[in-house]
Amino acid sequence: MTTQTAIDNFVNRCRTLGLSVTPQRLAIFKALIDDHSHPRPEDIYKKIKAEHPTISLATIYKTLETFEKHGIVSVVTHLHNTVRYDPITEPHHHVVCVKCNKIIDVIDPSLNTIKVPEHILQGNELLGYSIHFNVICSECRLKETN
Amino acid sequence: MTTQTAIDNFVNRCRTLGLSVTPQRLAIFKALIDDHSHPRPEDIYKKIKAEHPTISLATIYKTLETFEKHGIVSVVTHLHNTVRYDPITEPHHHVVCVKCNKIIDVIDPSLNTIKVPEHILQGNELLGYSIHFNVICSECRLKETN
DNA sequence: TTATTAATTAATAATTGTTATCCAATAATA
DNA sequence: TATTATTGGATAACAATTATTAATTAATAA
Question: What residue spans define the domains of chain B?
Answer without folding.
Answer: 3-69, 93-144
